[in-house]
Each structure stands twice: as structure tokens, then as C-alpha cells.
């Protein structure tokens, strides 16, 4: 691959005068890419976390190196950050919609069709002007507090294949860093010039890459790319209670699977397994918390790689990878589901034996102060809902905050999902007539809804906005019921979680990976619902 080195004559950057102390300089420039204007345009990245600088020899090195600083982010949160387009970037725009082919790859829009969702507005207009979804209906609601918090970071899509984005601290927009060429152009056009003396006030990250060579870099330097090699799988410990029954390496979405395991009630835990089913990380619940696992032992990985989990009837906890509790909120009125929001707040539901007087959804800030609640009684204290009572009034079992600021709430006993606005008003009811004791509904990027459904047989269902089933997968073995979690992976496959088995199926309904509990003799009738698995998530390599 032929790459030109960064030289001052190419960029026309102005020296960035620094008058503050070394610490202040690093703080002010955290997240920026700096070019030495008095040398040969050598590029440095200032890590906003350690406030040290690392040398970026060229585009290919920068692409590999910057990913080491990557911070995982979910697609829903990434979509809250505006997309940046730099007209000086050299790239092809095949369909002429104002978005380069590489950027469209990152956005999952078509590079050959200017209007991917066929709504009459080009992808470029939707993303850059109208702030609407280029892959479906709805607007793109940006979160300024999230942007401020993540400025200068390299963001890696954990629900996809780790695609990298650079959140430019100067304009608060994200730029897709597909490869070395894209990294080179980011270095070239989104950088700041800096003098040698000012640069010297920022400490070097000596463990990152070597210092610049004494010989000045030459224009037209030729870089020989490293051969592409498959990332080795992290190996773990075999648990004889589990078995991987199916693994199609060529089709399954590579990564690890995180979930709560309660098949041995004496040892409830959170575990992460590789594609072979080997345990690579686990967290055993402390003795005083082991009884708080049903219903809804929900687990998810946060962008900082910590683990957030719900203990029904006890509280919500965050532990780091060293198995230390770093945050918690204790309450008896919690079950099934909790999410960490981009603003740092935590939202959770209460549906297990809930009463009409209880809040079904609560949002707390990091200090544990309740900042928002939603009461179903304000909208459903009427027939036919008011007389329902089955493991609680609503048995609300899931919640998620949407990009438009509304909240999606699953009221299981009402056999429907509701969307409520920030004032708590119900703006939409979803799934009436189709949903049966639905679990974990999510709004997909294409505007459809994906959920687990407890009809006979139990299924994973994708439903469009008009209530039509566009895809479904039936779990016909009643010994695996209930099915309580369905996740769409970035390769189009679907992860389905039943009480004794986790499977990955492709769009043609072929199982490409399955992970099971070997002995399910105790999983009889309703007893099985409190054993085994509840939810799971696939974490991209």
C-alpha cells in the first residue's frame, strides 16, 4: 500500500500556541491528533484518559494503534452522536448522496442506492441535514452530554464487528475509521499543529509505539501492511455441566457470550464463555445475595466493560472485571431488567408482584436519586386492565430508552408494549393481538420490533411497525420454555435464549451455534423458569 507521510506543506495547519502548564496542556488537548509543525509533520494522539501522547507513524500504524485506545459502545448510543463528513477526504461516493462509500459501510446504508430506505429522501440528506433515520422511520436524537463525555475517544461498535469511529473533539462529530487510509486522512485533516516545545510538555506513552526515528520520514514512504491473521480465541475453563452442540465457525458471529447462570441454585453466577463454551470470566454472587435471582437475573456489559446486573427484590449492581462492586442501588421494587443510560443514569423495571400503587419504571442518577418514574395506573386503571393479577398487576419485564427520548416498556400481563414520552404519556401501544406475555422487546434500527413471545410454541418474532410478522423462529421443545430474550446480531443472525439453551440462528433459521445445559431433569413445569438462563448478549471480538 502506497502512503504519503504527513508533511507540513500538505496540511497548512497553524501552530497551536500553548501557554498553560504541562498538565493543563494535556487536559486541553486530550483526544486531539497533533502535528509537529517544526519537524516533518509527525503525528501524535493524546489519550484523553491517561493524558499521554502516542506516536502515529503513518495511517496503517495509526489505525492499528488507535484501536488500542478504543472504548466499546452500543449501536443505540453511537446513533446519538452526529456523523461527520470532511469534504477533503479522498473517497468514492458511488450513489452521489453526499456520503462516501466507506462511510456508508459504517452506517450500514447502501453505497449504490442513494435512498436506502426508499422514503424519498437521500441518505445524505437524512444523516447530515434532516437528522432522520436513513434505514427506516423516526428521527435521530443526539445526546450532547454523551458527545461531551466521549470527545476525542475512539469508539468501537461492540454489537457489530468492532468498527471504529473517531469522535473529533473540535466539532463533536464521529468519523468512520475503516482502515489505514481513513486513519491517514483523519490524521491529515482533523489534526492540530503544535510546536516542538509545546509538544514536549505532554508526556510520551513509551509503552505504545516507538519514538519517531532519528531519520526524517520521507515523502512517498512505502508501507508494507502486516498480513491479515485471525485473532486467536481467548481460551477458558471447561464446565462439564455445559455443552456446545453446534458451532459453524464460518457462519456464527465470533465473540463471547455473557449471561447469568442459575442452573445450580447453590452457585448462581454471571459467566462469559467463548465460542467453544469455555468460561473465560465469572462472578459468583456473594452468599447474602444468592437468593435474589428470580424473576429476571438480567446482565449486560457496559461500554467501560463493567457488568451491570439486576438482583430481583434486592437492587441493581455494577461490578468491574476485577469483581469489585463499584456502584449499586438497593431497592426491593426491582425485577427483570435494568439499563445504563448515556447520561450515566440507570433505568429499571418493577413487575414481579407489582401493585397498582407501584411505579413500574424508575430512573435513578449515579448518586441514587430518583429522577423519573412511570406509573401504569395513570393510564390503565380501567377495564379490561384494572382487574388483572398474575404475578403482579402488570408484571412489567423490560424497559429501554429510545433515541427520540421516549421510553419503551413491556407490560407483560397486558400483552403489549407501550411507548411513553418524557412526560409519561402513552404515545403508542404496540403488539396488541399478536404479543403473548412478551419479553425483552427492542426497537431495531430498521424500525421493526424484536421480542420473545410466549404463545404455543414460544417464538422469537420480528414485527414491523404495522404489526406484521416479518421473521420468526419457533422453539418447539417445551422443555426449553420459557424463551425470554431475543437479540439481533450485527451479521443479521439472532441470539435466542431459552431457560436451558442459547442458540444463534441465521435469517434462514439455521442454527449456527448452540450452548446448552446438559442435565435438565429438574427443569419441569414452572420450576424451570427459575433455573438456567434468562438473558444473554454476544460481545464482538
The fraction of residues assigned to DSSP E strands is 25-35%
Give Rg in angstroms.
25 Å
The number of helical elements comes to 10
**Strand order within the widest sheet?**
9-32-31-30-29
* Low-confidence sequence ranges: 1-22, 209-229
Number of strands: 33
Structure class: mainly beta
Shape: globular
CA(first)-CA(last) distance = 26 Å
Percentage of residues in helical conformation = 10-25%
Mean pLDDT: 85
**How many strands, what sense, and barrel or not for the largest sheet?**
5 strands, antiparallel
Task: Give a verbal description of the structure.
The protein is globular. By secondary structure, the chain is mostly beta strands. It has ten helices and 33 strands. A hairpin with a 4-residue loop joins β26 and β27. Strands 9-32-31-30-29 form a five-stranded antiparallel beta sheet, with no helix packed on it. Strands 3-2-1-8 form a four-stranded mixed beta sheet. Strands 4-5-6-7 form a four-stranded mixed beta sheet. α3 packs across α8.
Give the arrangement of secondary structure elements:
Layout: H1 8-11, H2 22-29, E1 33-36, E2 43-46, E3 53-56, H3 59-67, E4 71-73, H4 75-78, H5 101-107, H6 123-130, H7 144-150, E5 154-157, E6 164-168, E7 173-176, H8 180-189, E8 192-194, H9 196-199, E9 242-247, E10 255-261, E11 269-273, E12 279-284, E13 299-301, E14 307-311, E15 315-319, E16 325-330, E17 335-340, E18 346-349, E19 361-364, E20 370-374, H10 377-380, E21 396-401, E22 407-411, E23 416-420, E24 426-430, E25 439-443, E26 449-453, E27 458-463, E28 469-475, E29 483-488, E30 494-498, E31 501-505, E32 511-517, E33 536-540
Parallel strand pairs: 1-8, 4-5
Antiparallel strand pairs: 1-2, 2-3, 5-6, 6-7, 9-32, 10-11, 10-33, 11-12, 13-14, 14-15, 15-16, 17-18, 18-19, 19-20, 21-22, 22-23, 23-24, 25-26, 26-27, 27-28, 29-30, 30-31, 31-32
Helix pairs in contact: 3-8
Amino acid at each position: 500500500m502506497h502512503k504519503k507521510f504527513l508533511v507540513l506543506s500538505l496540511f497548512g495547519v497553524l501552530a497551536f500556541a500553548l501557554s498553560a502548564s504541562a498538565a493543563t496542556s494535556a487536559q486541553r488537548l486530550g483526544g486531539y491528533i497533533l502535528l509537529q509543525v517544526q519537524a516533518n509533520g509527525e503525528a501524535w494522539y493524546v489519550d484523553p484518559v491517561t493524558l499521554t501522547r502516542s506516536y502515529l507513524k503513518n495511517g496503517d500504524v495509526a489505525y492499528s494503534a488507535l484501536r488500542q485506545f478504543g472504548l466499546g459502545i452500543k449501536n443505540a448510543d453511537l446513533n446519538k452522536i452526529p456523523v461527520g463528513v470532511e469534504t477533503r477526504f479522498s473517497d468514492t461516493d458511488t450513489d452521489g448522496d453526499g456520503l462516501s462509500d466507506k462511510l456508508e459501510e459504517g452506517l450500514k446504508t447502501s453505497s449504490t442506492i442513494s435512498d436506502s430506505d426508499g422514503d424519498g429522501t437521500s441518505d445524505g440528506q437524512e444523516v447530515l441535514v434532516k437528522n432522520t433515520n436513513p434505514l427506516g422511520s423516526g428521527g435521530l436524537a443526539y445526546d450532547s452530554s454523551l458527545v461531551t463525555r466521549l470527545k476525542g475517544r475512539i469508539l468501537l461498535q461492540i454489537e457489530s464487528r468492532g468498527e471504529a469511529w473517531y469522535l473529533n473533539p473540535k466539532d463533536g462529530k464521529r468519523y468512520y475509521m475503516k482502515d489505514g487510509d481513513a486513519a491517514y486522512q483523519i490524521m491529515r485533516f482533523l489534526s492540530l499543529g503544535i510546536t516542538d516545545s509545546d509538544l514536549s510538555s505532554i508526556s510520551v506513552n513509551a509503552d505504545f509505539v516507538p519514538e519517531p526515528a532519528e531519520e526524517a520520514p520521507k515523502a512517498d514512504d512505502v508501507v508494507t501492511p502486516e498480513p491479515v491473521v485471525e485473532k486467536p480465541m481467548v481460551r477458558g475453563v471447561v464446565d462439564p455441566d455445559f455443552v456446545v452442540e453446534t458451532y459453524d465457525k464460518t457462519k456464527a458471529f465470533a465473540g463471547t457470550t455473557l449471561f447469568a447462570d442459575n442452573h445450580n441454585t447453590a452457585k448462581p453466577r454471571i459467566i462469559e464463555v467463548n465460542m467453544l463454551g469455555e468460561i473465560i470470566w465469572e462472578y459468583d454472587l456473594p452468599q447474602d445475595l444468592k437468593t435474589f435471582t428470580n424473576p429476571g437475573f438480567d446482565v449486560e456489559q457496559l461500554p467501560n466493560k463493567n457488568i451491570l446486573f439486576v438482583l430481583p427484590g434486592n437492587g441493581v449492581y455494577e461490578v468491574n472485571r476485577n469483581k469489585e462492586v463499584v456502584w449499586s442501588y438497593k431497592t426491593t421494587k426491582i425485577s427483570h431488567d435494568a439499563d445504563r443510560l448515556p447520561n450515566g443514569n440507570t433505568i429499571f423495571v418493577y413487575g414481579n408482584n407489582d401493585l397498582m400503587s407501584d411505579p413500574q419504571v424508575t430512573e435513578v442518577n449515579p448518586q441514587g436519586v430518583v429522577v423519573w418514574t412511570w406509573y401504569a395506573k395513570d393510564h390503565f386503571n380501567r377495564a379490561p386492565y384494572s382487574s388483572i393479577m398474575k404475578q403482579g398487576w402488570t408484571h412489567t419485564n423490560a424497559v429501554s430508552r429510545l433515541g427520540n427520548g421516549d421510553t419503551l416498556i413491556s407490560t407483560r400481563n397486558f400483552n403489549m408494549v407501550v411507548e411513553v414520552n418524557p412526560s409519561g404519556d402513552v404515545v403508542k401501544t404496540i403488539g396488541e393481538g399478536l404479543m403473548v406475555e412478551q419479553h425483552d422487546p427492542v426497537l431495531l434500527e430498521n424500525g421493526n420490533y424484536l421480542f420473545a413471545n410466549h404463545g404455543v410454541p414460544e417464538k422469537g418474532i420480528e414485527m414491523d411497525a404495522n404489526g406484521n410478522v416479518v421473521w420468526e423462529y419457533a422453539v418447539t421443545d417445551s422443555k426449553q420454555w420459557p424463551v425470554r430474550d431475543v437479540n439481533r446480531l450485527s451479521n443479521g443472525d439472532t441470539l435466542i435464549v431459552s431457560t436451558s439453551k442459547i442458540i444463534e440462528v441465521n435469517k434462514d433459521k439455521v442454527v449456527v451455534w448452540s450452548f446448552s445445559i446438559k442435565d435438565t431433569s429438574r427443569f419441569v413445569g414452572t420450576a424451570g423458569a427459575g433455573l438456567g438462563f434468562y438473558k444473554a448478549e454476544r460481545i464482538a471480538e
